[in-house]
Amino acid sequence: MSADPDVVAAADRNFIGAYEKLAEHQAAGAVQSFGAVTAFVSGLAISFLNGCIAPGAAAAPDLEAAVEWLDERPYPYEVWIGEQFADRHVAPLAAKGFEREAWAMPSMMIRPRVEPPAPHDGITVRAVGDRAALDEHVAMLVDDGLPRDVAVPMYSPSFANDPDVQAFTAYLDGRPVGSSLAIRTGDVCGVYSVGTTPDARRRGVGSAATWAAVGAGARWGCSMAVLQSSEMGYPVYLGMGFEVLKRYAVFHRIG
Fold it and tell me: Which one, of 145, 182, 188, lies nearest residue 166 by Cα?
């Protein structure tokens, strides 16, 4: 990977900024910087919604301070470190009960398109634009397994109506089965929370929801859209034309 450093830095800022935006709209949300490490809590009891991000060469004392800050708060969390800098932090994190996941999470980028490819037959995607659409979106997420006590506060009206946030619901034959979320930082659009209910997978729903979020970036005038990929989504995003910029090592507490 030999991506433009400025592009990589902009993608890193969006990754961090998305969590800052989420924390901004949560009653227990908080963000704290420790040198090159950004720690945050959303106050929601899901590990990937709290944690710290160290995209570059973070000093060991700064990462330790970030972990201590997070340990003072009653939320599960994860640690993301730029892969090329991760090895030096493995032993100290292991001493605190963390293990490194086998999957190194890719940060990926694509140039936005105002007119994305047409979705497969039976699939439509709509922007969440009013309270009824938001309630339907949240209900679909709960049906897909996201705990209600996480989904409802996460997708609060203030968050959904933020001018730098746009949620989308994907439908298959008129039934809500998928989601995505676009979050803007500067001229970068981040694509988040892409998901499809199990019974609707491998039908093109996730791709359509992703394209909708990318399209939001185009309408915002963003120069690029970025995302951090799961192992399941990786081949789909490659097929859509996303390019890998870098990878993050992911650490979680054992148990």
Answer: 182
Q: Which residues contact 163 (CB under 8 A, 6 or more apart)?
A: none
Ordered by start, the domain boundaries in the chain are 5-108+249-253, 112-222
pLDDT score at 2: 63
Q: How far apart are the first and last CA of the chain?
A: 33
User: Torsion over CA of 135, 51, 190 and 83, rounded to 10 degrees?
Assistant: -150
pLDDT at residue 163, rounded to an integer:
97
CATH number for the segment(s) 112-222: 3.40.630.30
Cα dihedral sign for 95, 83, 49, 140?
negative
Is pTM beyond 0.90? Reply is yes
Residue range 106-141, pLDDT digits in tens: 999 999 865 778 888 899 999 999 999 999 999 999
